[in-house]
Design brief:
Strand content: 5-15%
Radius of gyration: 33 Å
Number of strands: 27
Helix content: 40-55%
Oligomer: single chain
Largest sheet: 11 strands, mixed
Length: 833
Amino acid sequence: MRVRLPHRLSETLAVATAVLVGAVLASLCLVLLETGLRSPVPPQRLVTADLIVGGEQSVPRAEDLDVALPEHVGVPADLINEVAGVPGVAAAAGDLSFPAAVSDGAGGFQSSADPRRAGHGWDSLFGELALVGRPPAGAHDVVLDAATAATAGVSVGDQVEVALAGEPQTMRLTGVLDPTWSHAGIFVSDDLARTVASRAPGTVDLITATTEPGSDPTAVAERVQQVVGEDLVVSSGSDLGAAERPAAAATTGMLMLLVLSAAGVVVILVGFITGGAVSVMVANRARELALLRAIGATPAQVRSLMARQASAVALVAAVGGAALGHLLAWWAQDSLVGLGLLATGQQLSWSPWPALVTVLLLVGIVQVAARTASWRVSRLSATTAVVETEAEPRSGGQARTRIGAVLLALSLGTALAPLITRTEAAIIGAASGALLASIAVALIAPAVVRRLTRWLAPRQRTVSRWLAVRNSGSFALRTGGALAVLALAVGLTVTQIFATTTLSSVAAHEAREGTIATAQVTADQTGGVPASVVEEIEDLSSVSAAVTVRHTSGVRTSADGTQALVDADAQEILAVGPGVAEVLDLGVVDGDLADLVGDTVAVDASLAWPGTIEVGDTLPLALADGTRVEPTVVATYRHGFGFGQVVASGDLVSGGAGPYDSVLVQGPEAAAVDRDLTTLAATHPGLEASHPLTQEDSDPAALDPAVWINLGASVVLFGYILLGVANRLVATTLRRRREWQLLGALGATPRQVWAMVATETGLIALGATAAGLMIALVPMSLVALGFRGTPWPQGPVWVVATTVLVVTAAAYLATLMPTHHLVKSRGPLGPAG
């Protein structure tokens, strides 16, 4: 005979809600992970190609994901004819991209998604796109897409102003692509493309090829691979997009890393919250389970009963949550593209696996939680189980308090790390110490509650408050548990957000304090400042120094350059021209920035700590385009948060040739510099002169996608923690029915009980706020002191205020609503017998 306990609405809702939200989070992570693994980056411009030959766009890394290279590695141009001669290949051409922009018809230039790669050679399209006019042939011919031509107000045969590699020139529009072509593009002859592209002579970005009708592209690709060798990669089919757009393909790796880093936290949190809800359900059923044991049920039958009933609820909730998670992923797709986590045109991957794994995961968690929670009561005798359900434990032991004190001291030790070393690891360590402090608070909270209530009780002037204080102290374990979980919600949320804003604040401060240039010149619309303009700036009488700046990236490699170091990630590199010390104060620790010429770099002191890299050493790197270099370290500096961990000589990147991202300008008289640069900019369309970017007028956190991702994840996890806290508080409150019956028998009125519960909740919320802010603000204050020299956290005050208000409101609602339910009928306050 199968026994079935009746469902209780409050318990069912608690478990179902925890499982539902957990399934939403888990299925969302799994959909995004599957997308990173299986969803291809679609080709855009090279849709007519059947094969693409490119370099290896990643650096191998042992025991970890390979490091993606965001720029084309490059292919020897002499392989074009060899590829064209492979049986099955109809045609082959080299592909080159370069900075380009087209006039907007109003004296400026049109904006584009990436002006640094907006220009292309024509031959790689193989003439398969519908064209009005003729292809570009001469040095002044250009073909545009229909939208770009319309914005410029030109038609076939007209003259149009075009900037190639930052240099404006007048060209003839020889053709316009069919309006069905939806991608922007500026196309010139391949001869002109080779002239303006920054590639080394004899190399191209890619080799594109078409196959003969009826041939097998896979077989042709294999033959081409044999011709080009193992050092190059031949792509076909769904791999074409990644070969065409390596930077977009790198975003897929970033998506996977973010999902994998978040997935562990999500799984642990889902297990914690869901398991807690199931445990409360089992605890509330302890009397019934004990009675089942008394009538002959075996321990295994009792555990199976609870697991079966909880799993039935979990199955329905998990299916609904998985469906909602898929819906949330679909809704967030455009936002993911905007944040740079999905490539433009890339679609989410849809399959039944995320939903199936989500349901199995959640049902499995519920099964384990139900069997674990019912293990002890299933093995007790009926009388012992009934006694334990009537009398809950009142306090923890001294050993618990001592362990908590030790953990609290250890967490303070991690918080002191930023005072010793100025590294990102120190900030992460201080933030991680918040979790250790949360555990410590949970262990010492009962002892602290007991001592505080002993001091407060004699000072209360009303019966309700006296009862609340004495009750909190008498059941210190219950009170301390609620306080600790609420403190966890406050502390971890504030810490997570403040750690990110503190990093942003430190970076902004160092950039602001370290930028000593008088002005800067940029040309974002045209893809950069050309070398000819840099020479004009240097010739201005008001200018004493003009230093070119280019932003790129790289990764540290082994000495032979074959693989990235195990602990190395891709990092930003600031490539600068000679004289950087006149425009940037990097906070030099050792060496001299005057030596930053040729194949040299300066590195952040944290990268060199503790003595692993010194001035005079070589630093093997793989640059963004795969170029292996071994520059000499000529200086170390301390402003790495503001300017990156590596500042390289401009000669190290593409031979120092332009165009450049910006030019930092210094002069003895700022007014004269501004006047001369303004005059210069007026004669060069697309050129802009401004004060150096100090980040005073913009919030860097508002511009960094990682900050928004972190904020969103923190808010979601904060809400999920509150859900678990609310479930526990509701269940704990409902279990106090007999306690209140006893108070009623002694003469307590419903108003007094209500006031007592409200006071208890207020004490818990106040204690949780104090403990949570201690958990978060102490390490963040030490971080600010070590990195900024200011003894207060670097974060928005509204985050603290909002978190505290939400936690307090949740505590009151989760406690007072069930109290109102029990008190309003006066039934619970009648005599207990």
